[in-house]
## 1
Amino acid sequence: MARLRRGAPMSSRRELEVIAELVPTGSRVLDLGCGGGELLAHLRDARGCTGYGVEIDDQNVLACARRGVNVIQLNLEEGLALFEDASFDVVLQLQTLQHLRNTERMLRETARVGRQGIVSFPNFAHWPNRMSVLRGRMPVTKTLPYQWYDTPNIRVGTFADFEVLAQRNGLRIRDSFGLNGGQPVRRWPNLLASVAVFSFERS
Amino acid sequence: MASIGHVTPQTMHFAEPLPLRSGASLSAYDLVYETYGALNADKSNAVLVCHALNASHHVAGTYAGQERSEGWWDNLVGPGKPLDTNVFFVIGVNNLGSCFGSTGPMSPNPATGQLWGADFPVVTVEDWVDAQARLLDRLGITRLAAIIGGSLGGMQALSWTLRYPERVRDCIAVATAPSLSAQNIAFNEVARRAIITDPDFHGGHFHAHGVIPKRGLRVARMIGHITYLSDDSMEEKFGRELRAAELGYSTQDIEFQIESYLRHQGDKFSEYFDANTYLLITRALDYFDPALAFGGDLSRAFEVARHIRFGVVSFTTDWRFSPARSREIVKALVDNRIEVSYAEIAAPHGHDAFLLEDPRYHGVLKAWFSRIAVDVRDGALAAGGSDV
């Protein structure tokens, strides 16, 4: 079974806050692959949000329970049949998409269930990754700390790739930027950012 | 972890008639119950534990002078355990129609002076919940900090949130379902036919004949037991292990260890369980279907439970009450924007897992009860109570 983990770099406090700022105050939120529930707890405490996390990992489910975050233990690969159309203001899918076999279907499901979707994933076009591939080796970096043969990142995409996928699925991008060391990167994000962030809605 | 120690059951008599769902009514009845821990000053820390098919009010602790008399959920309930009796006042009630002390087929029928036997009225999950609510009235408890149950007990917990939503703060439903599937009813029917077709059953009035339909009870328990275990756990425990060194080439003697085990379970059960109770309780399981009154729409059924917080647990190898059935409950709650957490525990033990100790399962329950404890304490503080 696929283990869905937040990539280690994502959990940085600053990054969490940058993402949280994209979520309107008082929103009803579904966080797919919510990890230990850090973001949901922050959204609840700082922005008055309600909702649920979805997680597959036992330890993360327990961490959510201890944090007082509502969590539903599900395998995202099985889809989001539990959730009705447009039943959440915001559906978050942070550092999760790249672990899923059926990335495109999950993206569509995210757009179906939420009025607004927010995704983040490692940007493989970040320049150190390009350098690495130019040298003939797959990148191993802080954002991508795995070898090609043991990585949970089974989907390898770039900031620019996502723009194409979003358009293909009729998604309108509300905002997009990169992240590097927790700092937003708005200039040449496909080259300069290790993480891609997109906020979108159905067009 | 420490056990709660010796406990003593109590009996509460009710003289006011209890109207039953069938249209019948019980003119007077007794409920046997046990309590653990102390009720706080504002009576806000009570947790009701609902029992499943063959269990009772004896949830935790032991009986003085009785070996191996631990309650059926002793691993969960006690000082420092997930349902911590240092914090909560825990109540276990024996349901009507049972054979462990509360009024049932083995009690005398006031109309005839004979034992009720097969004449005991058909009781439903809703009837049990109504009776439990009256017990709480007598104990002065207007609102439960939590209601918890597994399997058929989980159905009672869910039913509480629909019948008395204002009396429940939290509901924890473990290894349960919003209704039985056709396959589940089928298993119950096989068990019932085993009992009813036993020549010693005598239409349920076997006491008058001085016999007990033990053969039927044994077979009923055997089939039940198969459904409580997973294929894998049975394989691991028994496999194809033989009782003797070689095959006996007999069609009627025990050859395999699994046969020996099932017969042993059946024998044990037939010594203590009442046949009419078995029929009544399996029927209560069959009938439970809160969505029925809403055209099959479970989400509409839960509309009344909007302010209650739920915890739902299922076990991956439970094929009697599968995770898919728990997800139906979760979906109905999510549709109503009700606060719910759901843990799907990858345990190998099948339906029985809900009675066993598993660190993931008990970890989640402990976390949920800790959160409830905080709410109880905050509520007591808000109400000006000092007893926290």
## 2
Amino acid sequence: MSGKHIADDSLQPESFEFSAESEAKITTILAKYPEPRKASAVMPLLDLAQRQHDNWIPMAAIDVIAARLGMARIRVLEVATFYTMYNLEPVGAWYLQACTTTPCWLRGSNEMMRAIKDTLGLDNHQRTEDGRFTLLEVECLGACCNAPILQVNDDFYEDLDYDSTVSLIESLKKGEAPSVGSVKGRQGSMSKDGPTSLVSLKDKDGVPAWFQDQAASVGGDD
Amino acid sequence: MPKLTVDGVEVEVPAGSTLLQACEAAGAEVPRFCYHDRLSIAGNCRMCLVEVEKAPKPVASCAFPAGDGQVVHTKSELARKAQKGTMEFLLINHPLDCPICDQGGECDLQDQAMGYGYHSTRYTENKRAVADKHMGPLVKTIMTRCIHCTRCVRFSTEIAGVTDMGMLNRGENAEITTYLEKALDSELSANVIDLCPVGALTSKPYAFVARPWELKKTETVDVMDAVGSNIRVDARGSEVLRVLPRLHEDINEEWISDKTRYACDGLKRQRLDRPYVRGADGKLKPASWDQAFATIASNVKEVSGKQMAAIAGDMVDAESMFALKSLMTALGSPNTDCRQDGTKLQAGARAGYIFNTTIAGIERADALLIVGSNPRWEAALVNARIRKTWMRKPIKIGVVGERLDLTYDYDYLGAGPQTLAEIASGEHAFTQVLKDAKAPMLIVGQGALSRADGEAVLATCQAIAEQTGMVYDESRTETPGEDGAEPTVTVTPAWNGFNVLHTAAARVAGLDLGFVPGEGGKDVEAILKAAKSGGVKFLYLLAADEIEAKAFPNCFVVYQGHHGDIGAQAADVVLPGAAYTEKDGLYVNTEGRVQLGVGAAFPPGEARADWKILRALSNVLGQTLPYDTLEDLRMALNKAHPVFTGLDVTESADWSAFVEMSLTDGKMDDTVPFASPIENFYMTDPISRSSATMAACTEDFVVPKRKAAAS
């Protein structure tokens, strides 16, 4: 691992301006903070800049945000380099963030990583030669129940193994994003064999089965 | 006032103190890296862990408030173990390159690892490596050594007021850097070298030059500006290798400007190490002291006292000026002046030419008017004190003069005399701000006073001080107590908010001892004019390099000084004197504080201490000065001017004498705006003009700005 790489000067745009759409959002964001504390808006503004600018933040945007919030430029850059979710150099249109933290690793994230390596030839922090894919290993994405997880741009693909990762990437290569969530078709974090509890909410008499059981045991004590 | 027990010693500390301060008050030594008295608390090095009874785990004492009844152990087994553990963590990524590190021998990490670390490492994995950062011509970086205490970041943000340093990335990848690796553009930037507790930021010009234990350390004062910063000069043999700050709470705290610190390499270049006499072909030729004196004596013989003149330079010690003044008086010449820049300040009423508030006194002010001065360049430490005040409490600052980045916010009132006149007449809104303030102050710079209408500017500033109540004596107000209680007495100490900011270290001493034109005497401008026209036939320049001195065909010029600068080029005889690090002498700073400078090395070659040269010359001229030692000379100086008696004290000057002084009621010239006399902070005197380091700074910091301004 090394610190975040900032894009070379040749890649940096000369200037940056928030779009009208972003400006509208900025107004809402800034309204949340009292004027002397407007520096608090630095993180949402960095996010807006990144979304507006092909998923990476140019240095020109750092200057714009610093001026906007009355902060020193270095303070904005500190925030931008601290958080992994901000990109300071161009990334692929398909930005893959693979979780390799313990639960995902236990559930086979190594296989997922191998599939990415085999299909795209990518190791951590790398971008494909055609520039379409970037891979970043990240820490816990907070969906351990459906491990392992691959985040593609803003969406989670869950329950991946080698084959499903390969087919996911193949469809991404074609420019198609399959439906998000569990690739095994699970609903939420439901058991893979279907529901095991609360299978039916009501029995024939309109009373829940679990309530009947409880009532019976209470009745038995009498 | 919480009372607590530290290592069995009971102490009472002021409310709001930290545990670390309480430990220090109890005499317990607590190791630390990130904590610094004058910076905000970061609490990120974790070295200051101590045990507090009833606390579940060791406590970082620098960031923990001292509370009543706490029982603290700094040397218990738990505390020791915690400190040792922290040290082990800090050393995980710190390279073992002490033998090639410039910080070696004066390194906090090295010292504390001896006191609070394990004897050897248990860590066998690879250490991390960090790319070095470019931080300009003064600060050398070896970032692998950095332990991320962030003292440098806090210093540049809080004290220097230049927010360009920061810590990028996080965890193991954290790196200290400047924004886009630009050099820190501050006059105080090199103080981060002293602050760095390890060898990550070291001195670039001093890299691999010497080890601290090889150096002879001399405590003296600085003469690069009129602040009189307390410094320590480290020399090896006759070579001054570096200058470091010395603690003086009332002047420079523990900082010094970059010029003070780094102009010392100018002491090795362009030096005058032997006398020179101008030959018949118009070229200066090396000569012996006897030849030089004989040449002067033969040229002085036919000149009457009225046709003689002397100008004293900006870095001269008081004793030499006093000796020269005595010699000129003995020769019958009233033409003496120490005001090379032509400032219209007058000797006599001391309150009219010193920084009455004192530098530490700035912290009491709640309104400030800066007139024709760029304190950031004229007196960097005064500016740092203004910033400190501005950071800590509400203070309204107004500027008349150039619109510059002074590292604090101010109201820009106007460019020149017109605005000043409006403030004086009460038409300007800022007059009311000054009137409403409890402790209003005014700083007038040499840029406003060295103009042709300088005396009128001074009179206007005096009027503003008078009208807005800037000067008052101690007052007591009694509030009757309720229900027969004792009345409460509030004492407001005396205040004088009128301040003249000097740029020359010798100026206040020169005015104090009356190195100004006597009865019917000529000032600098008149002397130079007369030297050109033939009215002055003998001109003595005592290290005077800031004047327009070209060779005067009809005037015999003697230059006594340490550098072959502007003055020496005009001279017919050059006498080699000593620089401030090579002689003992008294200097008076802008506050009127007399301080003793101590020689750290010998002058080069045949150069001599300046008072000795003057004493020897007086003998040749038949007007032998009545002192054979520096002590005798000081006795005579003290007798003639008792103000030099007290060392390192500031006495309040008599304001009424200044008010009664007759100043011109002439008009100020509205057409010319005020401008600071300093065009380049890094080159203001013969020493800094000869310094390669200062030239590099000029190239890096000043030239780009000039180019930008020109285009």
